[in-house]
Design goal:
The chain folds into 2 domains: 5-123, Roll (2,3-Dihydroxybiphenyl 1,2-Dioxygenase, domain 1); 130-160. By secondary structure, the chain is α/β, with parallel strands linked by helices. The termini are far apart. Helix content is 31%, strand content 27%. The model is unreliable at 128-173 (pLDDT under 50). A hairpin with a 5-residue loop joins strand 7 (105-111) and strand 8 (117-123).
C-alpha cells in the first residue's frame, strides 16, 4: 500500500548520523541522498526519507504518529534502541515483548531529536516467508525434472497421434 514515508528535520546531514546508526542496526542502509535536503533509506528501494519540510518551517513529530521498522532479530531491536539513545534520541519504551499487542510481538520505541516516534519490531515465533534461495532451489528441481517429462511426452506423442497443426500439412493429390 505505501511507497514511502518521510519525517522532517532541520539539518539532514546531522540527522543522517542518527538514522545511519539506528537503521543500520536493522539492516537498512542509505540508498539515496539529495544533500542538504533529503536522504532515503531502505533495503532495495528508498522507502523511508529524512528531509527538510517542504514549507521551510520548523519540523515537528506528528501527535499520534509513529513509524515501525521490521527488525531481523531481538538483537537488532536492542541495538536500534541503544544506538538511538547514544545519539541523542529519547526512550519511549525499551526493548521487550509487547503481549498487549500480540503474544509474538517484540519491539522498542524511541524519539529522534525532532520528536519523530520510531519503533523497531519483529514477530517472534512466526514462520518467516520463504527466502529467495528456497524459491531458486524449487525452480532448479523443476528444470531438472522437465527434460524427463518432455522425453516421456515425446515418446507418447510419436505413438500413433495425429501431427499437430504447427507441422506442415501434406499436399493433396
Amino acid at each position: 500500500m505505501l511507497h514511502h514515508i518521510s519525517v522532517g528535520v532541520d539539518n539532514v546531514e546531522k540527522a543522517a548520523e542518527f538514522y545511519d546508526a539506528i537503521l543500520g542496526a536493522l539492516g537498512y542502509r542509505r540508498l539515496m541522498e539529495f544533500l542538504p535536503y533529503a536522504i532515503g533509506y531502505g533495503d532495495k528501494q528508498a522507502a523511508f526519507w529524512v528531509q527538510r519540510p517542504a514549507d521551510g518551517r520548523t519540523p515537528s513529530g506528528g501527535n499520534g504518529t509513529h513509524i515501525a521498522f521490521m527488525a531481523p532479530s531481538k538483537f537488532a531491536v536492542e541495538s536500534f534502541h541503544r544506538m538511538a539513545l547514544e545519539r541523542g534520541g529519547s526512550d519511549e519504551g525499551g526493548p521487550g515483548p509487547r503481549p498487549e499487542y500480540t503474544p509474538e510481538y517484540y519491539g522498542a520505541f524511541v524519539r529522534d531529536a525532532y520528536g519523530n516516534k520510531l519503533e523497531a519490531m519483529l514477530m517472534i515465533g512466526r514462520a518467516a516467508a520463504p527466502a529467495p534461495k528456497s524459491k531458486t532451489k524449487s525452480r532448479v528441481k523443476k528444470a531438472k525434472s522437465s527434460p524427463k517429462r518432455t522425453a516421456a511426452r515425446g515418446t507418447r506423442k510419436s505413438a500413433g497421434r495425429k501431427p499437430s497443426k504447427a507441422r506442415p500439412k501434406s499436399r493433396k493429390r
